[in-house]
Amino acid sequence: MTPMPPQVVISGCSGGGKSTLLGELRRRGHATVAEPGRRIIAEQIRQGGNALPWTDMAAFLREALSVAAMDLEGAARDAGPVFFDRGLIDAAAALQRLCGVSLAQSLGESRPYGRLVFLAPPWPDIYGTDEARRHGFPEAEAEYAHLDATYRALGYEVRLLPRASVAERADFVLQAIHRC
Predict the structure, then answer these.
(1) How far apart are CA 179 and CA 34, in angstroms?
(2) Contact between 119 and 148 (Cβ < 8 Å)
(3) What CA–CA distance (Å, rounded) separates 94 from 62?
(4) In 71-107, which positions are buried (b, 16+ CB within 10 angstroms) versus exposed (e)?
(5) What Rg, from alpha-carbon coordinates, does the chain have?
(6) Which residue(s) pair with 89 in the sheet?
(7) Strand partners, 30
(8) 3-state secondary structure of 28
(9) Per-residue pLDDT tens for 129-145?
(10) Is this model's pTM higher than 0.85 or not?
């Protein structure tokens, strides 16, 4: 049997069901890492900080890079697979798109995840806003398009998650990584 990739990113459209999928993978006994952005927002709100996407996007994204790097260090101890809800490349891609910081400046030569990346495509039927996701669907679609292009440009093999039940999505991911 081929060993499974140690670190698997689930990225894509905001509100595309990534966190729900990670919850299902965790329920099935797999190691998961929660989205850095949501953790940062919760902490910044708790502390009264300004590194929030609606207050100081650049500070928020730099903090996301830092948190994602720490997540990778922590996950390196796991035998794998470890599933990440977004990560280092997502933060670097957003810094590039929204603040003009090059990927080379944010990532260097780092390609920290397994070659197979899963993207949640825009799915209006499940998209919603909340305290941490205040932007609308058109912004989520633009974010998705940039992430798709970024992961492909960095040499990752991108697989789109099907518009299916959470269980079917989890099965899809697990079957794909077993084939790698």
Answers:
(1) 25
(2) yes
(3) 10
(4) bbeebeeeebbbbbbbbbbbbbbbbbbeeebebeebb
(5) 15
(6) none
(7) none
(8) coil
(9) 656 555 667 788 888 99
(10) yes
Structure tokens at 144: 């998705």
- Fill in the amino acid letter for 27: R
Quote the CA–CA distance of 90 and 48 in Å, as a whole number.
25
Could you list the beta-strand ranges (E) of 92-165.
Answer: 116-120, 157-160
CA–CA separation, 60 and 58 (whole Å): 5
Q: Do 114 and 7 meet the contact criterion of CB atoms below 8 Å apart? A: yes
For 96-122, what is each residue's pLDDT tens digit? 988 899 999 999 887 888 899 999 998
Strand partners, 33: 84
Residue with tokens 């919850």: 23
The secondary structure of residue 32, as a DSSP letter, is E
* CA separation for the pair 33, 148 (Å, rounded): 21
